[in-house]
Amino acid sequence: MKLVIPLFFLVCLSITAQNTLSLEEGATSPKATLLDVEWMTGHWKGEAFGGITEEIWSPPLGGSMMFSFKLVVNGMVNFYELGHIKEVDGTLLLQLKHFDGDLKGWEEKNDTVDFKLVKLEPNKVFFDDFTLERISDQEINLFVVVGDNDGNQEEVQFNYKRQ
Known about the structure:
Layout: H1 4-16, E1 42-48, E2 51-57, E3 64-73, E4 76-88, E5 91-100, E6 113-121, E7 124-127, E8 130-136, E9 139-147, E10 153-162
């Protein structure tokens, strides 16, 4: 019986992050262009973290696709993200910065949160702990591994519908 509890715990941990992948140490990102993620272009809305989420993605231009994210809880902006996916050395890199509702940055001035490309599938793009999934022309999922101040991590799903 003592073995069953740790085994169950390990199985539950492996189940919690089934939609994201991590880039192995020393691995290189596969070749890719913005054409591989162009389907993200548009205005998307969903629900997460107890509120309304919104993402707006621009079409490819100048070697990048820009995006903005907003979380509104109880009628107030909780936080924003601004970022882009850009072509770098024949592959893709997703970078973002967080801001509170008053546009005060969370990261240091010159720091970004970076997600290297791990794998491409026809309707899924796996960045390091961040996955974009095309369900249809009108629906997408984003999966991201988030952590808390205690070092705990979990995979969160965002489901969006095109606006």
